[in-house]
Design goal:
By secondary structure, the chain is of the alpha+beta class. It has helices spanning about 20-25, 30, 45-50, 50-55, 115-125, 145-150, 175-185, and strands at about 10, 60-65, 70-80, 95-105, 135, 155-160, 165-175.
């Protein structure tokens, strides 16, 4: 059962996960936002396109989301700069990462797991000090995804044109992430002895 205490973790995807991923990518609630019916992949295509070694050559890292020891979804991060194929051609910052993800089971949608998954992915990516910003690009009519990203700290910037069509450009900067994390830090009694304006957290930019 999913509760507020449920924790979503991420592990690197392996080649052994690819048949499972093929099944997921052929589920309607996923392919409707990942290219449509005509983009449903064959097993051979998944084994080729999503092989971890092949993804790494494109600066893409794939993960399997886990809940209570069971796989519940797919996620990926990538270096936006130099993505190719018409993606992010104006990007000049090597620290920007793009993300995509989906839950495997449609019955788990709308229960907060997507937000937990995105939180886990963002937290992990910002552990790398070279990462400056994380961005994503849901379709304008994918309201569930947009709301999920907003709950996870992303801010809508504008609607953009991408090789896949119109998208809502959403970002979370390192500064915003660290400010939110500081604000959520549990209050400790030793804080009472601090004078206002002293010993405040240092913002990193």
């Amino acid at each position: 059962m999913i509760t507020s205490d449920s924790v979503v973790t991420l592990r690197l995807m392996t080649e052994q996960d690819l048949p499972m991923l093929h099944d997921w990518l052929n589920r309607h609630h996923i392919f409707e936002w990942w290219g449509g019916e005509e983009a449903r992949p064959t097993l051979a295509e998944v084994l080729e396109e999503y092989a971890p070694n092949n993804l790494s050559r494109e600066s893409v890292t794939a993960y399997i989301a886990m809940l209570d020891g069971e796989p519940i979804g797919y996620a990926q991060s990538y270096v936006a700069l130099g993505s190719g194929d018409g993606w992010w051609e104006d990007e000049t910052d090597p620290g920007v990462r793009g993300i995509d993800q989906s839950l495997a089971d449609p019955s788990q949608l709308g229960k907060g797991l997507g937000t937990k998954l995105v939180h886990a992915l963002v937290e992990m990516l910002f552990q790398d000090p070279e990462v400056t910003k994380i961005q994503t690009d849901p379709a304008p009519d994918n309201l569930r995804a947009i709301r999920c990203y907003e709950k996870a700290g992303f801010v809508r910037q504008k609607t953009i044109a991408t090789p896949d069509g119109p998208a809502v450009y959403m970002v979370q900067t390192r500064q915003a992430f660290e400010q939110a994390r500081s604000a959520a830090r549990p209050f400790h009694r030793e804080d009472e002895s601090r004078q206002p304006g002293l010993a405040s957290p240092v913002e990193r930019h």
